[in-house]
Amino acid sequence: MVNAGKHLMTGLGVLLLSAILAVSCYAMDYPDEVEIDSLANLYEAVVFDHAMHVDATENCSECHHHTTGSGVANDYCAKCHDGKEEMDSVACQDCHSADPVSPENLHNPKPGYSYHNDQPNLKAAYHLNCVGCHQEVDGPTGCEDCHAKTEAGEKFYHSGEFAPKESAHSSGH
Amino acid sequence: MSKITRRKFLAASAAGGTAIMMAPTKKAFAAGSFEGFPDGMGVLVDLTRCVGCRTCEAACNKEQQLPEPAKPFDDYSVFDEIHHGQKRRTTDKAYTIVNRYELKDTEEPLYRKIQCNHCNEPACLTSCFVNAYKKTPEGAVIYDSHVCVGCRNCMIACPFHIPAYTYHSVLNPVIKKCIFCYDTRLKEGKPPACVESCPQQVMTFGKRKDLMKIAHERIKKNPGKYVDHVYGEKEVGGTGWFYISNAPFEEAGFDVHLPKKPIIDNVKDFLAIVPVVLTVWPALFTGFHLLATKGKSHGHGDDHSHDEQGGH
Predict the structure, then answer these.
(1) Is A106 on the interface with B (CB under 8 A)?
(2) Chain A residues within 8 A of B67 when measuring between CB atoms
(3) By CB distance 3.0 to 4.6 Å, which of A122, A164, B254, B273 could disulfide with A98?
(4) A158–B196 CB contact, under 8 Å
(5) Nearest to B111 by CA among B125, B96, B93
(6) What is the CATH number of domain A32-172?
């Protein structure tokens, strides 16, 4: 019983320490890997090689707009932001809502941000950013090049073990 | 006495005729200026974003509980399919489909999602003589398949060739088409399944009037990216679903020769005179006939008797 409590305390301590480290690492530097899993359903989570992309791009703002303090790539953003200051949050999901398809979210996702309308939802923010660039630089663009289909995904797409049988051909008639 | 009756009759039929002529014309004009329900929902489709993953097709299949497809939804060979000399079309088993178009100026193909565009003034609704169709205040064009008699007038009327027919059903063939997920989603203010499923947010869901502003803003904000046209803003009187594109719309298989006015306008003038022809003409010409023949028949009778008398 005492042992278990000790283990728990040690575990919590380690967790706290790693959390502090992670936060301070993040603030000073950037994570080498980001597991993008908040939307995983039809596809498995994506383990995003952030370090490789940092090397491959010239400026953080190519993906992070004006939030990382490294300038502004988009002319539209540059009209208000000079991009010299690092923002409190630089993660995609801090600004791009996972559920923005409601008409209420279409305009002014946050009050006061009147030019932040027509903001893509989180799923689209990822895909538009990734696929858009991958098309230009001949990176991978196939769905399963980045994330493997789950069983739910195969069922949804009627693929893999849920693929239509031969008899389905008659449906063409 | 008889003269007064005729005069009264003619006056009454003339007044009635004028009333009838005025009534449908007024109504028809009102129909022509209808720009959709003020809070009707719509979807902005940005073709520059579509990568042809067909997730929307799979989402539609699931949501509408449609039969198993002939090929998996991640099988991209469907883009090469040609049926009767045409690319794929919506069917009774697939209310939405994505087609691929090769463009003249770029190597990248363009993908276009096709479904019912939910017109402000639907031609299908106009053509349906059993009133199976309905444009709901939420913006959806829905239909009651229990009322449908399977005449297929709507298939001919639709400028986008959307309604499909259950040809395989021997006993009760009916029309099938996209209903904006009205029953399961739109009614509750939720976006249709295809919109929600799209990884690229090709489709943006909202009030039609808000989306129209966003469409024009997107064109303005990204100079050179888009063709300066919102397909569906004006076409056939405006559609609930409308498109913006980086390529000329004709290259993406759109019919760019559609009138700006609703399809009903083509027949409105004709339809307005039908009641006139059916009601005023019989009354008017009966009146003329009575006028023309009454005196004459008297005359004839008189002449006849005179002749007879003269002959004797």
Answers:
(1) yes
(2) 171
(3) A122
(4) no
(5) B96
(6) 3.90.10.10
Question: How far from each other are the two terminal CA atoms of chain A, in whole angstroms?
Answer: 70
| Chain B residue with the nearest C-alpha to that of A104 | B206
Contacts 24+ apart (CB under 8 A), B21-28: B21/B272, B21/B276, B21/B280, B24/B271, B24/B272, B24/B275, B25/B272, B28/B268, B28/B269, B28/B271, B28/B272
Biggest alpha carbon–alpha carbon distance for chain A: 73
* Cα–Cα distance, B195 to B205 (Å, whole number): 7
Q: Do the Cβ atoms of B58 and A156 come within 8 Å?
A: yes
Residue A73 Cα distances to A76, A123, B106, B304, angstroms:
9, 21, 25, 104
Tell me if chain B has a CB within 8 Å of the CB of A142.
no
A135 touches chain B (CB under 8 A): yes
The reply to whether ipTM tops 0.90 is no
pLDDT by residue, tens only, chain B of 312 residues: 444 455 565 565 555 555 555 554 444 444 445 666 878 999 999 999 999 999 999 999 999 999 999 999 999 999 999 999 999 999 999 999 999 999 998 888 999 999 999 999 999 999 999 999 999 999 999 999 999 988 999 999 999 999 999 998 888 888 999 999 999 999 998 999 999 999 999 999 999 999 999 999 999 989 999 999 999 999 999 999 999 999 999 999 999 999 998 888 877 777 777 778 888 888 999 999 898 887 665 555 444 444 444 444
Q: Which B-chain residues 81-140 have CB contacts (< 8 A) with chain A?
A: 93, 108
* pTM (predicted TM-score): 0.78
Inter-residue contact A70 to A59 (CB < 8 Å): yes
In B, which residues are within 8 Å of A124 by CB distance? 49, 198-201
Ramachandran quadrant class, B33 (left: phi over 0; alpha: psi -120 to 50; beta: rest): alpha
Q: Which residues of B touch A118 (CB under 8 A)?
A: 204, 214, 217-218
Q: Is B49 on the interface with A (CB under 8 A)?
A: yes
Q: Give the nearest partner residue to A107 out of B75, B196, B210, using CB atoms.
A: B210
Residue A98 near chain B (CB below 8 Å): no
Q: Is A164 on the interface with B (CB under 8 A)?
A: yes
Helix or strand or coil: residue A95? Answer: helix
Beta bridge partners of A68: A86
Q: How many CB pairs under 8 A join A and B?
A: 90
